[in-house]
Amino acid sequence: MDASLLETKKPPYGIIVILLIGAFISILNETLLNIALPSIKDDFHVSMSTVQWLATGYMLVNGVMIPATAFLIQRYTVRRLFLVAMSLFSIGTILAGFSPEFWVLLAGRIVQASGSAIMMPLLMNVMLTSFPIEKRGAAMGLFGLVMVFAPAIGPTLSGWIVEHYSWRMLFHIVMPIAIAIVVIAFFLLKDKKEKVEIKLDTLSFILSTIGFGGILYGFSSAGDKGWDAPEVYITLIVGGLSLILFIWRQLVIPVPMLEFRVYKYPMFTLASAISVVLMMAMFSAMLLLPMYIQTIRGISPLKSGLMLLPGALLMGLMSPITGKLFDKFGGRVLAIIGLTITIVTTYFFSTLTLSTTYTELILLYTARMFGMSMVMMPVMTNGLNQLPQRLNPHGTAMNNTLQQVSGAIGSALLITVMSNRTETHATNLITSATKKLTGQESPAQIAALKEHLGMKAMVEGINDSFKVSVCIALVALILAFFMKRVKPNREEISQETTKQTFVKQATEN
């Protein structure tokens, strides 16, 4: 794909538009179901820990599939990969929409995820190979629009649909769009690419699946089951050991499934580190705010979603602008400004009370999204710009995999902090309140007091979790000061092209 796209005089806008639409609905679907989980739980009469697998399973499949996308992108054409990915996504959507049992719905989500996992690395790689270095910022800004806008509007759309219709409508709306994209792509999507005969290393794929799958499952389960649960620490140990073996194997085999030598490029390594830290911090608002809004404040799902909408819209509008600013000024300035805004707003989120107004929450969340819109894509693009063309599929796969893993780690860490601190605050508050009791209180008054103290303890636990998030974001800010604007070595690019031609001739001979 790399050579074919580079040979074209102008970027393949038709291919990019089709890919963008496909990626948009597949990413939108990732967060679309979150607000509907309580309704699905009631419909199928399953526990909350069981229904949570609709979100956890989706993330696990993404984490397992994404490392293989570097191989798939090199081996197959954009057309073939896109058609397979969107077909899988469409089949999963149909299965989920008409599921008579919970296990069918879960199977549909897993099939959906297997298609969705291919979409993001494929789209990012097409963007990187279609535009010259000096115009990549604007192009990746468009990519960022899809990456952040789709999951951000998911809760709002989901809240409105669940409040007015059945949760099945979430799948029925997406279904015709997904099928239409498959049909359009079948007739319009064309790209020239010579066949590359590389084989997938089966042992690498098995080790990758156990490694990333074990780590994702372990961290995802830790928040619910606790770190001392055998199910958590055994899967983390097995996953960690498998991942070490996977990395070792990639460094010794001639054609690795995922090229870890991308980390010899310092700006890519720095970009990965900042992205990992930022993803962990970002999950604080995504996880903790819905708990605060719905559990403590009793705000409806629709109003919860609407609270996130201005931030989502601003982030979507900022992505192309940020891309152009990146082309002009580089990523360092944008990252420092954006992370500073993110840290300040996250700190204010650590001062929530039982009476924080709805307007304050909207303004804070919108400002936080504005800050984050200036960080993620500029940092990622700056890092990818340093990679030679042949390593683009590996760089994009590595970034997407790390985002899944760091998201799971961030979720587990912040939920654990919140749970532990809530228990501590509850004990302290109850002890303090008990000393002030006169013994004249009725059972109803004592029950009301306990409920009030429980809510107050949970707010304090959420605040403590946001404080941890501030510290995590500070690490990202410190790292951002070491960013340098990448100016690719034209000679290196020329050498890479010569090397690819030599390898191709040697293979043919």
TrEMBL record:
It is a multi-pass membrane protein. Belongs to the major facilitator superfamily. EmrB family. The chain crosses the membrane at residues 12-33, 53-73, 80-98, 110-128, 140-161, 167-188, 200-220, 232-248, 268-293, 305-326, 333-350, 362-380, 465-483. GO terms for molecular function: transmembrane transporter activity. It comes from Heyndrickxia camelliae. InterPro entries: EmrB-like (IPR004638), MFS (IPR011701), MFS_dom (IPR020846), MFS_trans_sf (IPR036259). PANTHER family: MAJOR FACILITATOR SUPERFAMILY MULTIDRUG TRANSPORTER MFSC (PTHR42718). Pfam families: MFS_1 (PF07690). This is MFS transporter. Keywords: Cell membrane, Membrane, Transmembrane, Transmembrane helix, Transport. CDD domains: MFS_LmrB_MDR_like (cd17503). Residues 15-488 form the Major facilitator superfamily (MFS) profile domain. GO terms for cellular component: plasma membrane. It is found in: Cell membrane.
